[in-house]
Amino acid sequence: MKRCPECNRTYADDTITFCLADGALLSAPFDPQATLRIPPHRRTNETPTEAFHDVPRRSQSPNKWKVILIVVPVVVLLAAGAIALWVRLAPQTSNSARESVTQTPNSVPSPSVLPSPTPDKLSVKPEATPTPEVKPDLSYLTGVYNLYALENPSGDSIGTMTLTVRKDNNIFARGKDWKGQGRIDGKQGYYDWKFEDGKNGRTTILINDNGTLQGRVFGSGLDWWYLARRQK
Fold first, then answer.
1. Comparison of pLDDT for 132 and 222, the residue scoring more
2. Residue 15 domain flag
3. Ordered DSSP codes for 45-61
4. Higher-confidence residue: 113 or 170?
5. How many domains does the chain have?
6. Which domain CATH number covers 203?
7. Taking the model in full, what pTM does it have?
8. How far apart are CA 17 and CA 36, in angstroms?
């Protein structure tokens, strides 16, 4: 008879080599008459039982009651104040909400219309075209003038001058042996003159209200004033 060393099963058939339960290699033939050695009984130490003694209860401290007596009234006062404030504000809030509903019943906000973008060409303001200055027409001054010394305008004439004024206010002056060219604007102007002998200079002109001309001649050693009257 063979025995399994793992599960201690015995097999009477000596031709079986391995345990049919766990596959372990069977030992040599087993003698049932052999005395089995039982291992000694293993004792375990029991856990000692602890004895619990009643712990005397401590009396509540008197300071705890003092704190309770102080905190409870404060909490009550705060709650009462909050309730009073809510009661005072609640009617005003309800009245304002009721007025807003009465004024605008079933009001639906209308969508805001955004302005359409203005093209750059339309946003640019055209520049103001300057108004051309209208110059007075002084062509009426064209004519033949007698020249007098300014310090003696009632004396004898000292010469004559033919004056031509065009619409562009350019002037042409001519005397016995000289001629000149210039411009006149408004009530004053000038002309540059030149004599046949080469003398040259400038004459400034001022138009008086009575239609006479007052001129100053200077250049080539000359510096004198004259008064010109149109011939009739």
1. 222
2. yes
3. PPPPPPPPPPPPPPPPP
4. 170
5. 2
6. 2.40.128.20
7. 0.43
8. 23
Instruction: Kindly report, residue by residue over 15-62, the tens digit of the pLDDT.
Output: 888 888 887 887 776 555 555 555 566 665 555 555 555 545 555 556
Q: Which residues contact 219 (CB under 8 A, 6 or more apart)?
A: 193, 199, 200, 201, 202
Amino acid at 16: I
Question: Does 146 map to a domain?
Answer: yes
**Cβ–Cβ < 8 Å for 94, 87:** no
Q: Which domain holds residue 3?
A: 1-34
Whether 78 maps to a domain, the answer reads no
Q: At CA 57, angle to CA 52 and CA 61, rounded to 5?
A: 150
* Averaged pLDDT, 169-191: 93
Within-domain flag for 200: yes
The full length of the chain comes to 232
